[in-house]
């Protein structure tokens, strides 16, 4: 019933995992949340928690990165049923791209209609500061340019169409809601919007690469999220995503700064409370998604 190793996951495989989870909990989530590096505290906001270690969930990959606990937490947020990934998967961990994104299809089969993703990212936009929260309005999919797209391979129409549109990937109403909520909470000074660029990692960027990405229109750079967004949109879920600017991308040969994961986690700790408050308030105000893509 559950495939081994690096095999691709079929609709039936995803359904088997979703059904297994549904037998273990009474929570029927409509919102799915993915926690970025150092942002796992989001899951602690859930009430009446039922949590599973990834190693105990059939077909689930394991988290291998510091700052990603590796737990799937079900619970309620302001009365709304949610499921939260405390830890995500990245290409550089060596997983095939279909495995990294498998949880999005499981979310869908659990009944999730809205996905909220967070990530830690390097700031390319010179107006951004460390600690800014960037609402993602679009993305640049660099691995996709080289043919590494999570939808490559046979398409199963039960999930979605062969050629899904991505010009509407990031839900505009939810972006507006985030802006409104952010202003109300007094976060206006550090709430920004912009374009996120995904790279494979795990090495951080060179100075020349940062300059190039900035020229191409990216405001922030990271190693995640976009693959999940593509799969979530393919199966008709509404998507909202936030980047926490944890470090400034180094753009200048005179700079002494060096990107490092410790700084990423440290900034996560400093801004976690506001990020959680923003998402918490948004979930409380969200309308249900009725228009599948
Ligand atoms: O995107 P998340 O998972 O937040 O993590 C980001 O932070 C790590 C680098 O410090 C990379 O994994 C990068 O993608
Ligand atoms: N690629 C990349 N990922 C990050 N995650 C957090 N900061 C960074 C960064 O500067 N570059």
From TrEMBL:
Gene3D superfamilies: Nucleoside phosphorylase domain. GO terms for molecular function: guanosine phosphorylase activity; purine-nucleoside phosphorylase activity. Its EC number is 2.4.2.1. Pathway: Purine metabolism; purine nucleoside salvage. GO terms for biological process: purine ribonucleoside salvage. The keyword Chloroplast does not apply. GO terms for cellular component: cytoplasm. It catalyses: 2'-deoxyguanosine + phosphate = 2-deoxy-alpha-D-ribose 1-phosphate + guanine; 2'-deoxyinosine + phosphate = 2-deoxy-alpha-D-ribose 1-phosphate + hypoxanthine; inosine + phosphate = alpha-D-ribose 1-phosphate + hypoxanthine; guanosine + phosphate = alpha-D-ribose 1-phosphate + guanine. It comes from the Eukaryota. InterPro entries: Nucleoside_phosphorylase_d, Nucleoside_phosphorylase_sf, Pur_Nuc_Pase_Ino/Guo-sp, Purine_phosphorylase. Coiled coil: none annotated. Keywords: Glycosyltransferase, Purine salvage, Transferase. A purine D-ribonucleoside binds at residues 205, 247. It holds the Pfam family PNP_UDP_1. Transmembrane segments: none annotated. Residues 31-283 form the Nucleoside phosphorylase domain. Phosphate binds at residues 37, 68, 88-90, 120, 224. Belongs to the PNP/MTAP phosphorylase family. The purine nucleoside phosphorylases catalyze the phosphorolytic breakdown of the N-glycosidic bond in the beta-(deoxy)ribonucleoside molecules, with the formation of the corresponding free purine bases and pentose-1-phosphate. This is Purine nucleoside phosphorylase. It comes from Hippocampus comes (Tiger tail seahorse). The lineage of its organism: Eukaryota, Metazoa, Chordata, Craniata, Vertebrata.
């Amino acid at each position: 019933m559950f495939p081994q190793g690096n095999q691709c996951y079929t609709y039936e495989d995803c359904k088997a995992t979703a059904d297994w989870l549904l037998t273990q909990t009474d929570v029927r989530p409509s919102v799915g949340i993915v926690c970025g590096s150092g942002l796992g505290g989001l899951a602690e906001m859930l009430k009446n928690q039922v949590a599973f270690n990834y190693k105990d969930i059939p077909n689930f990959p394991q988290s291998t990165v510091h700052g990603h606990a590796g737990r799937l937490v079900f619970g309620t947020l302001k009365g709304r049923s949610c499921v939260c990934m405390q830890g995500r998967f990245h290409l550089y961990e060596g997983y095939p791209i279909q495995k990294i994104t498998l949880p999005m299809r499981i979310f869908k089969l659990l009944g999730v209609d809205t996905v909220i993703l967070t990530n830690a990212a390097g700031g390319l936009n010179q107006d951004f500061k460390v600690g800014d929260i960037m609402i993602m309005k679009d993305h640049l999919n660099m691995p996709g340019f080289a043919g590494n797209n999570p939808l490559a391979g046979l398409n199963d129409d039960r999930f979605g169409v062969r050629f899904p549109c991505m010009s509407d990937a990031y839900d505009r109403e939810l972006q507006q809601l985030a802006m409104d909520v952010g202003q109300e909470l007094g976060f206006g000074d550090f709430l920004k919007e912009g374009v996120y660029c995904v790279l494979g990692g795990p090495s951080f960027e060179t100075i020349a690469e940062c300059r190039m990405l900035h020229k191409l229109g990216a405001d922030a750079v990271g190693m995640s999220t976009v693959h999940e967004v593509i799969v979530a949109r393919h199966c008709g879920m509404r998507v909202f995503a936030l980047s926490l600017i944890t470090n400034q991308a180094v753009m200048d040969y005179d700079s002494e700064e060096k990107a490092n994961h410790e700084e990423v986690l440290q900034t996560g700790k400093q801004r976690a409370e506001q990020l959680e408050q923003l998402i918490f308030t948004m979930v409380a105000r969200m309308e249900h998604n009725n228009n599948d893509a």
